[in-house]
Amino acid sequence: MDPQPLEKTNPSLGDKISVSGVNVWYAAQQVLFDLSIAIRPCAVTAIIGPSGCGKTTLLRLMNRMNDRVPGARMTGLIRMDGRDIYGPDVQVSELRKRVGMVFQKPNPFPGSIFDNVTFGLKIRGMVLRSFLNDRVERTLRQVHLWDEVKDKLKTSALHLSGGQQQRLCLARALAVEPSVLLMDEPASSLDPINTARIEELIVQLKAQHTIVMVTHNMQQAGRTSDVTAFLHKGRLIELADTATFFTNPKSPSTQDYITGRFR
Amino acid sequence: MRPFSLFAFFERMEHGLAQLVRGGLGLAVRLMTMTIILLALVWLGYLFWIGKARLNTEFLFGFNSVVADKAGVYPALMGSLWLLLMVFLLSFLPGLAIAVHLERGHTSRRAKHFISLNLSNLAGVPSVVYGLAGLELFARQLDLGICLLSASLTLSLMALPTVIITCREAIRRVPAELEDGAVALGATPLQALWFQILPAAFPGILSGVMLSISRIVGEAAPLLVLGAVAFVPFAPSSVWDYFTLLPVQIFFWSNQSQPDFAPNAAAAVVILLGITLIFHLLALWIRNRWKKRILL
Ligand SMILES: Nc1ncnc2c1ncn2[C@@H]1O[C@H](COP(=O)(O)OP(=O)(O)OP(=O)(O)O)[C@@H](O)[C@H]1O
Ligand SMILES: [Mg+2]
Fold first, then answer.
1. Confidence class for position B79, pLDDT limits 50, 70, 90
2. Does the beta carbon of A93 lie inside 6 Å of ligand 1?
3. Which residue's alpha carbon is at the smallest distance from atom 5 of ligand 1?
4. Would you kindly state where each structural domain of chain A is located, as residue ranges?
5. Integer CA distances (angstroms), A134 to A127, A139, A153, A201, B246, in order
6. Is A107 in contact with B195 (Cβ distance < 8 A)?
């Protein structure tokens, strides 16, 4: 039941991110146990598992968002491109500029739709108007929001619907072209048509981006991901190529989970 | 008998209350509110009526005099405006900085608790005590003397606890997800603060600061202790100048034995209320413009 080492899943490429032997506590409660997982570059890794098993926590370790949770503590090693991201020489804001994140709950900034998409660009010093305009249109088209908002880019993002806000937050993260994109249930409040579009986008995006995606939707993991990881009670139970994972799961509890027979 | 249930109790109570409101309680509450507002208006009208003879430009731009209907309010008016500006400058930025530090900085929980406790205590200290402290600290120890600067410093010190408390509240009301969103895009904590948190908290910060400062500028007690008098033959032209202020002027005029000074006091009150009103309207305007700009 050991997680498979990366070489078995993809022998040709090195890891983009490697998590090894990670434990996480919130105050006295341990939520991740000796967890190791390798994230393959330019591929989609899906993380599945029951609610509360630690998926969001694992995701938030990879861009150090958990540093911000008071009382959270971590041991273990996480490397990106071979470098310890928790090392003393790492500047957290620089790390997060390369590792984008879409949160489980949409959190648009109070401000216009335009400002939401351009915020990440502006803090990188990209302020040229024509460039921003182009980038806003391109990313909003990518997430299939452009047609709905193209006439109201200057109106408040808080007046968008939940599903529109979710796509806006994805656009906001995409606008800065991060090399890694962490997505926490990116389609949770989308209708079937938009879900299908976003899944399609995710598959396209992996040409340039490394994607780690949390999802509760098994079909979604099956359709979009290359590698699937199953987490249960803070432990990695199974990690395999998606095709193998769903057709031939090794662990009985993975089998139970993906067939819906989970206790 | 059914066991007592708080849910059922509340339901019955709300039902009863709704009936009461329909059956006259609502009317009573409305009447009470109207009465209070009416009383305030009547009082204001009365002041207007008493002071109406003096509400003219001569009074506004004249200097004080022993003859009641020759006396003007100009030095006191300018003193109060100066003070308003100075207290704003001296308490707003430091207060905001301290509030930000307490809310977002790395202060231990115990230190925060200790500071909060002291802040609310300080906000409750009588203004006379601040006057005495200011007299000793600024006028004597720092040897600034009795001048507009020591008065401004004293009142800023007095405004500071409330400014800090209200700014903290405003910052705390900004949801943490907002900062998460900003830092996840690579913003440094300072960038997140400046570009997201403070703009979102600004309306709350502004009303808090305006409220505490306009309250402070109506104070006479600490300034009387600090040595302000009613007879100052010039308007201040720098912070080192001697000064008088509207509340102080009102206090002295209303204390005169001759009744001739009563209209002066009333007119000065109307002017002081006018300043406060303008100040509040300005705050409201800025607040609404801001809300529109950042589209809350
Ligand atoms: N800030 C926090 N403080 C304390 N405990 C936390 C915190 N965040 C998460 N936890 C706990 O850590 C465990 C894992 O939480 P996590 O959010 O990672 O789960 P998840 O797998 O993302 O669940 P879901 O599918 O419901 O989003 C849970 O037991 C949760 O209660
Ligand atoms: Mg989660």
1. confident
2. no
3. A26
4. 40-60+93-258
5. 12, 9, 13, 19, 58
6. no
**Count of A-B CB contacts under 8 Å:** 73
* Chain A residues lying within 8 Å of B188, measured CB to CB: 93
Q: How near does any CA of chain A get to the CA of B181, in Å?
A: 7
- Whether ligand 1 lies within 6 angstroms of the CB of A26 is answered as yes
Whether residue B184 lies within 8 A of chain A, CB to CB, comes out as: yes
CB A42 within 8 A of CB A207: yes
By the CB < 8 Å criterion, does B194 face chain A?
Answer: no
Amino acid letter, B178: L
Rounded to the nearest 10 degrees, the angle between the axes of helix B109-123 and helix B74-104 is 160
One-letter identity of residue A158: L
Q: What are phi and psi of A239, to 5 degrees?
A: -140, 120
Half-sphere exposure of A247 (CA within 13 A, CB side): 4
* Closest by Cβ to B188, choosing from A68, A93, A173: A93
- Supply B139's token pair: 């006028």
- Contact at 8 Å (CB) between B250 and B54? no
HSE toward the beta carbon, residue B134, CA cutoff 13 A: 28
Residue pLDDT, tens place only, B156-198: 988 899 999 999 999 999 999 999 999 999 999 999 999 999 9
Q: How far apart are CA A18 and CA A225, in angstroms?
A: 18
Tens digits of residue pLDDT in A149-161: 999 999 989 999 9
Which of A94, A131, A102, A93 has the alpha carbon at shortest distance from A114?
Answer: A131
Question: Cα separation of B145 and A8, whole Å?
Answer: 82
Give pTM, 2 decimals.
0.81
> Closest Cα partner for B217 from B90, B116, B57?
B90
Fold for the domain defined by A40-60+93-258: Rossmann fold (3.40.50)
SS3 of A203-246: the string is: HHHCCCCEEEEECCCHHHHHHHCCEEEEEECCEEEEEEEHHHHH
